[in-house]
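Re: Re: ligand-bound prediction request (bumping)

Still looking for help on this. To restate: I need the protein modeled with NAP bound, output as structure tokens. Inputs repeated here so nobody has to scroll up.
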Amino acid sequence: MIIDGKKVAFSVLEELKDKVKKSVKKPGLAVILANDDYSSKIYVASKEKHSVALGYKSCIYRFDSSITQGKLIELIHELNENPDINGILVQSPLYPHLDENEIIELINPKKDVDGFHPVNVGKLFAGLNPYAICCTPKGIMKLLKAYDIELEGKNALVIGRSNIVGKPIASLLTNENATVTLAHSKTKNLKEHTKKADIIVSATGHPRLITADMVKKDVVVVDVGIIRQFDGRLVGDVDFEKVKNIASYITPVPGGVGPMTIACLMENTYELFLLQNKGQI
Ligand code: NAP
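Reply:
Sorry for the wait, this slipped through. Here it is.
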């Protein structure tokens, strides 16, 4: 079965739209774009579009390369204090002269809509309730839940150990009682691991890393990778056309995890809005 990320994301967004419509006060999302990267500009535009569509207050701060670390720090302090802003997102990467880690650590963890602040990362790792869970891993968990995919006791293989996907999804799967293996570029004989996996979450950005001969029958495959090919087409880490005949469930690229990431960002903004306005909505 092909996991339809667009459909699940649509239902998350529709539910949010309904809730926001009923609320007099509206959630506010601030996005900071301090780089010249083409993909980042597209991601930020999409975040703005979704915020506006949901009736959120959307504030986009676009900077050229003359922006200083000091100015950015000032802005974070202002946004932390601004009651109309519930979520603060710093689009990664920043210009090379800026220190992204310092900026993230200055965000109030209750406004850290991306779930990247060490407080939220720590809470996730400890199995506690973070104020916000990183959007892509949260989206993956929602997809697995939407399709009633059992996790307890299953062998889950996560490929890729980035802070934004691999490590947090490994924690979330562990918290749901899966037996998790975390593989990366130094892992020896990846096929040995993929062959044993009941669930594979691949987040490497390496096109067609996972081929049909590497997976067992009825495996669940979540492909996080997004790679734009020379002809403009998007592909994932998985050889979708062949692996789909073996897997019980598989996410396509595009239309799988991607739409869930943005839907979860919108959901996180709403949840932080509720948290910051307890009892007043
Ligand atoms: P990243 O920070 O570059 O991390 C890639 C990870 O993959 C690293 O841990 C790396 O290992 C591992 N890796 C690379 N080649 C490998 C190989 N041949 N075998 C095993 N592991 C390998 O990337 P990321 O930010 O996590 O993103 C990964 C992919 O997901 C990208 O294509 C990105 O565009 C996509 N993505 C999609 C969404 C979405 O919403 N769908 C969201 C975020 C990211 P080392 O640690 O050893 O280097």
